[in-house]
């Protein structure tokens, strides 16, 4: 599958925390850690686990820009 | 200003393209390039230009996870 | 690629309209038409054209619910 | 109320799952099931229940496009 | 139509700017001005014009919190 | 930090409700109450509490427009 999202950041899952319905998945991407808030169902369906290769996928219209 | 967004990726602006109302800003973050789609007004207000230090700010609930 | 998005709606592209930086892509999904607003760059990279099979991908946290 | 969202997909609620603060609502839309992640408060305010007619409302800028 | 969005801010449209595909609509809400970036098609369909009563509708998961 | 988001609505936190992973923060902005759904981690990191001054930050592309 190829996707229109401009941002596909490859990395490795370093933490998966499931809540009641919503899970947090942390992906190490180079020196940065990207946190994704997704459904528990998605975690189960994709079998997401610490140590797996995974990408953080982000639509360009969801990125803000900040300057000091 | 401190912000609730979990993802603040520091980098350098490498390209700014303004459209009729919407601009695309590319930020080099380590080895990755992150594209933001923001308003022309924001580009003007922040004075965004190639070469400036800037961060890509992304809310955790806007991050999807993909696996091969 | 498998993605965490809960909603992957399969259909056929019926219209692609490029703007200055932002394009609109209409996908026929069963009886419904789903409109996506994505970058012109994505349209080019994926070679999106009328008649192509394509899916509308939507994160569950981006879906609102309305009742009459 | 008329809304600017380009995508208003009419269907029937087939499942409501409340979490600690966030609920998942599944709506059957034609042959597809659309999952919405909304607040428990919204579920209560709208009285969302299995069997109710409801629409999945999605802003065009929140739709990604994927091709095989 | 009742909608799950937690934030429905009533006001008056003070400016509509159409671009190639994307329009900006500014709504005066009390002392604040809220800017919406929506499709030109939506502006046309709803007949949005300066001086009209309108609400800015925002899903709770799209709101960030900032502190000084 | 200056941010590209067009909407920064200043107010006062009137309620913080933490869930399993996701929290709801209500901010009084003039006569309106804006609800933000953010991570528990963000609540902790920013030390968000009832009575604090805080802003609701919203990207223009996340605002829908509704008319009666």
Please describe what this structure looks like.
6 copies of one chain form a homohexamer. Chain A is mainly β. Chain A has a single domain, classed as Beta Barrel (OB fold (Dihydrolipoamide Acetyltransferase, E2P)). Helices cover 10% and strands 59% of the residues of chain A. A 4-stranded antiparallel beta sheet of chain A has the order 4-3-2-5. In chain A, a hairpin with a 2-residue loop joins strand 3 and strand 4. The longest helix of chain A is centred in the middle third of the chain and has 7 residues. The mean pLDDT of chain A is 97. Chains in contact: A-B, A-C, A-D, A-F, B-C, B-E, B-F, C-D, C-E, D-E, D-F, E-F. The interface between E and F is large, with 39 and 39 residues. Strand 5 of chain C pairs antiparallel with strand 6 of chain D, so a sheet runs across the interface.
């Amino acid at each position: 599958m190829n996707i229109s999202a401009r941002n596909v950041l490859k990395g490795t899952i370093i933490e998966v925390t499931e809540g009641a319905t919503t899970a947090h998945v942390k992906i190490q991407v180079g020196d940065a850690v990207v946190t994704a808030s997704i459904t528990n169902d998605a975690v189960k369906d994709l079998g997401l686990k610490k140590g797996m290769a995974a990408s953080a996928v982000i639509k360009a219209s969801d990125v803000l820009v900040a300057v000091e």
